[in-house]
Amino acid sequence: KMGLVTTLKGVTRHVLVFKLVPRGGPLGHAREGERLSLNSLLVRKLVVLGVTIVNVDHLFLSRGNVVNLGKLAFDKYHVCRVRGIQCLAFALSKALAKLFGNSILGGCRAPFRRFRVHRCPRCGACGHWGGVCVQFAALQH
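^ that's the sequence the OP posted. Answer follows.
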């Protein structure tokens, strides 16, 4: 993984890496210590390379450091396709605003309303915009 980050730093000036998201359920609770140690390792190794770390703990944890299950999928482990992705987009928009200034957010419009789909779970296509897939657009409402 570090090789990928090093390669990306050679290609572009800015690389952003998300910290691992808190998880719920029995598997998430069992692996919480592992998540915290991996996040700590990420910070130590990647900050030296000049990578921006995007912390999302405050968006997925409620008071008392309890995992907010409403932002996770039904299995309580993966991120919810709507609320969880909205939290990740919010964190990403804040990180980009910090790097490039608030003008990148585009005024009063909601940041990142249109986002690129890595692999659409509905149609199986790669790389289309979120609103292009009719099946994907139906999920947004």
